[in-house]
Structure formats: C-alpha cells, structure tokens
Amino acid sequence: MEHFIHVLPKVELHLHIEGTLEPELMFELAERNQIPLPYDSVESLRNAYEFDDLQSFLDLYYQGAAVLLTRQDFYDLTWAYMKRCQDQHVVHTEIFFDPQSHTSRGVAMEDVIIGIHDALQQAEQEFGITSHLILCFLRHLSEEDALATLNAALPYRSMFIGVGLDSSEKGHPPEKFARVFDKARSLGFKRVAHAGEEGPAAYIRTAVDVLGVDRVDHGVRCTEDDNLVDDLIASRMPLTVCPLSNIKLKVFSDIKEHNIRSLLHQGACVTVNSDDPAYFGGYIEENFKAVQDGLGMTNEELARLSLNAVEASFMTMERKAMISRNIIFLLHACQIRPD
Ligand code: HPA
Ligand code: ZN
Fold first, then answer.
1. 10 DSSP β-pair partners
2. Pocket test for ligand 1, best of 18, 52, 172, 194 (most atoms within 8 A of CB)
3. Distance in Å, CA 168 to ligand 1 centroid
4. How confident is the model at residue 2 (pLDDT cuts 50, 70, 90)?
5. What is the architecture of the domain spanning 2-20+69-333?
6. How far is the CA of 16 from the centre of ligand 2 (A)?
7. How far is it, in rounded angstroms, from Cα 139 to Cα 172?
8. 20 to 30 A Cα–Cα from 211, which one of 54, 76, 239, 240?
9. Nearest CA residue ID for atom 4, ligand 1
C-alpha cells in the first residue's frame, strides 16, 4: 500500500512555495543575508511549530519568509521543493507565491518571480515535471494593495497562470477582492481562492459566485451547508484539500474526523495537497498516507483523488490524458499483483 502511494503519479494544486522553507534552509539563508532569527537552532525552530489556529501559523510563516531576499534565494527555495517533487513522483505542480510578503520588505517583484520561474524551468528540463505559478493576494491587506501588486507583476505575466487569495480568512471575505479578481479575469488569468478553511461556508459561495473561481482552496467547511455541497458536486468545482494542514491548524481535531473521504464518496472533486509542508509535517506523499491510515482509504480511492487533481489542474488536455492513463494503468497493475 505504501508503495502504491509512492509510485502513484501525483499532481499538487495547493502548495505555498514559502511554506516549503525547511528550517535548515531558513538558517542557511538567514546567515547568507545577515538576518537575525529568534531561534538558536534548527531544533528549537522546529519545536516552535505547534499551532492553535491559522493566525498562529501565519505569524511564524511570515517571520520565516523574511530570510528570502535575492533572486538566488527564491531559486534555491523552489529548487529544493522541486527535488522533493521528483522524490515523491509529483508529475505536475501548481505553486502559490505571496509577492506582497516580499515586496513590502523591499524585494523586487522581478527577483521573486524570475527566481522561482528559473527553478521551475530547470525542473521541467531535468525531471520532466510540469508546473504553473499562481500569484496570491494577502487578504488581510487592502484591495488597493492587491491591485497594485497585480499591476507590478504584469510585466511577468507569461510566468504565472492565475491569481489566488490567501492569509487570514476570518473577517476578510472573498467579495472584498471582487474588483481585482474581475481585472484578473479580463486579463485572462485563472482564479482560485482559499475559502472555508477557517471561514464559513458562505465564503465558499462568494468565492464561486463573486470571484468566479476555477477551484476552491481548502473548502472543507462546505459540509456546513448541504445546498452548497450539492452545487459544488453538480458543477465539479474542485476543492484542494490539505489534510495534515487541517490537523495542524485544528480545523479538524483528528484525521479520523476529516470529511475528505465522505466528500469523495458523494461525488465531490476533492484532491490531496500539502499546503505548507515544512511547517505541517509532510509533503504530498505524507498527506496521502495520512488519509489512507486515518480514513482507511483504498488504492482505488487514492487513485481517484489523484485523477481528480489531474481534472482540476490547468495543464494541457494532452498532458491530462497521459497522466490519467498512467494512474489507471498503475491501479490495474496493482490490482492484478497487489503488493
Ligand atoms: N491558509 C491561508 N493562508 C495561507 C495558508 C493557509 O493554509 N498557508 C499559507 N498562507
Ligand atoms: Zn493554503
């Protein structure tokens, strides 16, 4: 079973590149850039990764991201993640980045985007892993700030496929960003938004209806509104679920309480993702293992989660068809000779 998860071709759709900053690299970059860290060792930093809720995590996440200064730093961060993708059979990944948490510290937009982009290009050449970048707006900041950020990124528009919305959810509903998402739509960008992680089901509704999103990030609180669940299922609206993140941030008290399996059985387009793996205790493979162990998911169900991610991705139809075939082939091969 573990072998099946390892070799299963996987597609990641909810991954914050700043959330892949492992403590070892954080210390290395802090030293390289002469930025003091309020921890005396990698162990004491790792020990601080106990969270009560989303905000307690975000406070550490932004503090950690402050060691990223140069184009090389963004390249190194992204390259380290792409090597993990290669190790874990991730064949395609769609990556979030938070430019406002860097430009507000004086880092040039160009260094952020080109640093990440260069590593993605190299991973495609060396590993054959395809990818897209998604520019996220920080929802605790104003819509004007988000508009200015989109404008500043437009010279590099060929390097990102869409826009997203992340950071502190409660009190910052999707509709606060209606105009900037309208602008992104008119420019031809894909749109996604975090909704229904800590915020109410109503935020999922407005992410879909007002922002016109192609996917909902998290979305697990949809089950508080039966009509919403029916609509999400009928429209095959993808939900990019992050099981280990939900446990670490106490969205669910235990993996056994998680609703991903029930949503899958009802016909929802749910997918498995790692969110901020350096902070939440695992990359995509560990997230698949968590739902397999905690919810008793079968190989067939795990393959369906991966097929959903292919369907929900922004890759070409040809690549979707090829990866889907490989997933189904593997499932059949394992059914003939279960390991
Ligand atoms: N939720 C909201 N914002 C975030 C997250 C998350 O899980 N990770 C990084 N930014
Ligand atoms: Zn997220």
1. 90
2. 194
3. 7
4. confident
5. Alpha-Beta Barrel (3.20)
6. 6
7. 6
8. 54
9. 167
